[in-house]
C-alpha cells in the first residue's frame, strides 16, 4: 500500500476499528494508538499506549476514534496534536460542494449531499444520509442507516440513533438523543430524549 499520511488514533474499541478501515482506504497509516483502558493491550498488530503522550510523533495529526459524543469531546479537549482531516471510506459519497470538518468520520456507504456542512469530530455512520444543506455542529453522531432530509440543523453533541429519520427543515438542539427508528417531524429543544413515530420528547437529560 502506498502511504500518503501517517496518523495517530485515540481509541482502540470497535468504532476505532471501523475508523482504521476508513484510513486504510485513504492510504493513511496509523503509527500509534492511545486508549485509556488498561485492559486493551493490542490494536491489530500494534501495542496500545495507555497514557496519551503529547511528545510522541508530535508533528503528526490525530483522530479521536470514539463513538460516544461526550467522551469524544473530552478527549479532543485534552490532546495537543493537530486534528486530522476527515476519515472517509472509499464507498462513501461526499458532494464536492459539501464541507466536512477536521476530525470527522464518514463511514461505509454513507452519503453527504451538496451544501451540507459538518463541523469537527462529526460521525456519519454506516449507510447514513445527510441530505442537501444540512448543518451538523461539532461532535454530532448520525447513527447507521439514519436519514437527515434537506435543510436539517443538528446542534452540538446530538446523537441521531440508528435508522432514525428527520424531516426536511427540522431543527434539533444541542446534546439531544434521537432514539433508533424515531421519525422527527418537528423542532426538538436542547438536551432531551426523543423516541417513537412521530418522535416525542420522553424526558429531559440531567446535564448538557
Automatic annotation (TrEMBL):
<dbReference type="InterPro" id="IPR020019">
    <property type="entry name" value="AcTrfase_PglD-like"/>
</dbReference>
<dbReference type="GO" id="GO:0016746">
    <property type="term" value="F:acyltransferase activity"/>
</dbReference>
<dbReference type="InterPro" id="IPR050179">
    <property type="entry name" value="Trans_hexapeptide_repeat"/>
</dbReference>
<dbReference type="InterPro" id="IPR001451">
    <property type="entry name" value="Hexapep"/>
</dbReference>
<comment type="similarity">
    <text>Belongs to the transferase hexapeptide repeat family.</text>
</comment>
<keyword id="KW-0808">Transferase</keyword>
<dbReference type="Pfam" id="PF17836">
    <property type="entry name" value="PglD_N"/>
</dbReference>
<feature type="site" description="Increases basicity of active site His">
    <location>
        <position position="133"/>
    </location>
</feature>
<keyword id="KW-0012">Acyltransferase</keyword>
<feature type="binding site">
    <location>
        <position position="67"/>
    </location>
    <ligand>
        <name>substrate</name>
    </ligand>
</feature>
<keyword id="KW-0677">Repeat</keyword>
<protein>
    <submittedName>
        <fullName>Sugar O-acyltransferase, sialic acid O-acetyltransferase NeuD family</fullName>
    </submittedName>
</protein>
<dbReference type="InterPro" id="IPR011004">
    <property type="entry name" value="Trimer_LpxA-like_sf"/>
</dbReference>
<feature type="active site" description="Proton acceptor">
    <location>
        <position position="132"/>
    </location>
</feature>
<feature type="binding site">
    <location>
        <position position="141"/>
    </location>
    <ligand>
        <name>acetyl-CoA</name>
    </ligand>
</feature>
<dbReference type="InterPro" id="IPR041561">
    <property type="entry name" value="PglD_N"/>
</dbReference>
<dbReference type="InterPro" id="IPR018357">
    <property type="entry name" value="Hexapep_transf_CS"/>
</dbReference>
<feature type="domain" description="PglD N-terminal">
    <location>
        <begin position="7"/>
        <end position="79"/>
    </location>
</feature>
<dbReference type="Pfam" id="PF00132">
    <property type="entry name" value="Hexapep"/>
</dbReference>
Amino acid at each position: 500500500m502506498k502511504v500518503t499520511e501517517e496518523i495517530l488514533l485515540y481509541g482502540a474499541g470497535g468504532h476505532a476499528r471501523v475508523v482504521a478501515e476508513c484510513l486504510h482506504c485513504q492510504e493513511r497509516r496509523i503509527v500509534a494508538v492511545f486508549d485509556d483502558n488498561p485492559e486493551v493491550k493490542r490494536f491489530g498488530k500494534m501495542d496500545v499506549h495507555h497514557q496519551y503522550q503529547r511528545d510522541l510523533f508530535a508533528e503528526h495529526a490525530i483522530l479521536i476514534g470514539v463513538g460516544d459524543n461526550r467522551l469524544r469531546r473530552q478527549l479532543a479537549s485534552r490532546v495537543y496534536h493537530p486534528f486530522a482531516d476527515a476519515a472517509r471510506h472509499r464507498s462513501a459519497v461526499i458532494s464536492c460542494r459539501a464541507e466536512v470538518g477536521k476530525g470527522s468520520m464518514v463511514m461505509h456507504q454513507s452519503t453527504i449531499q451538496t451544501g451540507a456542512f459538518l463541523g469537527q469530530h462529526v460521525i456519519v455512520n454506516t449507510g447514513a444520509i445527510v441530505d442537501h444543506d444540512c448543518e451538523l455542529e461539532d461532535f454530532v453522531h448520525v447513527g447507521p442507516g439514519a436519514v437527515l432530509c434537506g435543510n436539517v440543523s443538528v446542534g452540538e453533541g446530538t446523537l441521531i440513533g440508528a435508522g432514525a429519520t428527520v424531516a426536511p427543515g427540522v431543527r434539533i438542539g444541542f446534546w439531544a438523543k434521537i432514539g433508533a427508528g424515531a421519525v422527527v417531524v418537528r423542532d426538538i429543544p436542547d438536551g432531551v430524549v426523543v423516541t417513537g413515530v412521530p418522535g416525542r420528547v420522553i424526558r429531559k437529560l440531567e446535564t448538557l
